[in-house]
Amino acid sequence: MKYKRIDKDLFINNRKKLIKEIDKMSVVIFNSNDVMPTNSDGTMPFIQNSDLFWLSGIDQEESVLLLFPDNPDEKMREILFLKETNDHIAIWEGSKLNKEDAYNISGISTVFWLDEMENILAEIFILSKSLYLNNNIHTRSSSLVQTRDDRFKLMINNNYSDLKIKEVAPIMHDLRSIKSNLEVNLIQTACNITEKGFRRILPLIKPGIMEYEIEAELSYEFIRNRSSRFAYQPIIASGRNSCVLHYIENNKKCIDGDILLMDFGAEYANYASDLTRTIPVNGRFNNRQKAVYNSVLHVMIEATKMLRPGTLIKDYNKEVGYIMESELIKLGLLDMHDVKNQDSAQPLYKKYFMHGTSHFLGLDVHDVGRLESQICEGMVFTCEPGIYILEEELGIRLENDILVTSDGPYDLMRNIPIEIEEIEELMNS
Questions:
Q1: How many angstroms separate the CA atoms of 346 and 387, rounded?
Q2: CA dist., res. 259 & res. 395, Å (int)
Q3: Could you give the angle at which helices 99-106 and 9-21 cross, rounded to 10 degrees?
Q4: Helix or strand or coil: residue 29?
Q5: Angle subtended at Cα 66 by Cα 62 and Cα 69, rounded to the nearest 5 degrees
Q6: Strands, E assignment, 11-62
Q7: What does the pLDDT look like over 350-373, one tens digit per residue?
Q8: For 67-92, what is each residue's pLDDT tens digit?
Q9: Contacts of 152 (CB under 8 A, 6+ apart)
Q10: Which residue segments constitute the domains of the chain, with CATH numbers given?
Q11: Predicted TM-score (pTM) of this structure
């Protein structure tokens, strides 16, 4: 891995948090993600299961974490199962984790090879009353791919049909939504790398540059600062494509007079950052672009203020809608009379601002958490209002990552240029 080793206390403490939430005499099992195939003998880059990483720090394929905190045998309360390494694997793929490495990363002293797991599971299940299994329960999840967790559950149902199965995902969602100081530091590092990328590209953007050239410059800056990849597919959208919410082709020429919307973020140690900035291709905003930009910035500032402990997420979204309505009226995009008589279930502002304002951020860019809950200290949210005027081929979105604290919102991207004057100065320096 490119990132510096994380203090294993993070994972030790995370396991302690989970153990407090599960029933007595219960076992919890987490499987790594699969290595996904492409064609021939090709594979996609491996990305670890976020829950397994959060609990162990193990960033290797074919790994399994088992927790059985009430096991009479103290050595069998925390177990890692890993793919056994050998000289052949070391030559062809590089060295894999040995048992000492796994302990130094995770703080788990009991490590077995995967081919030992079947017999150990049989012994453990005799002692246990229930089994928590993991599942990708997420409001945005739509994958039809069978995962290792899915296959493991089928095996359990076939071989241990009397074992009571429970879902661990809701517990993990609650735990992972509150970030520890160590996690915040990792997210901050990802944000700092993202800042380096943004500052790198600003003076390079001129009429005629290709969107993919900007993406390439960002990728270079990220990797040279220990980021393994973009946290998600970057959006480099010029002109009319600035109104396409998830434009990812990044293959158009940037034209003089157009706006350029860029939504990207570096990951660091599997933790995501998520930034959006909208800039003028020629380095100078025109008057209409300035007006829309300042409206979006105003909404962002006001929305950020509301990211405080105790605020209900539904109330937050409703209030942001009111602020956006006011700005759209000022811009001449909505009529005040029409707004007063609108259907509250289908507010008119949705024509120009059709997505949510915030989402959880952490190990996943759309991190886990309960959207029906109240905002709590330690949560990290994006704040990303936008206005998209398709008939003007003008889309502007701004986005920073915000830590919720007892003293109010703390902007993890506070040092990344966002004011019109600073952006124009950097683009023309």
A1: 17
A2: 8
A3: 70
A4: strand
A5: 165
A6: 26-31
A7: 999 999 999 999 999 999 999 888
A8: 999 999 999 999 999 998 888 887 88
A9: 29, 31, 133
A10: 9-176 (3.40.350.10), 181-427 (3.90.230.10)
A11: 0.96
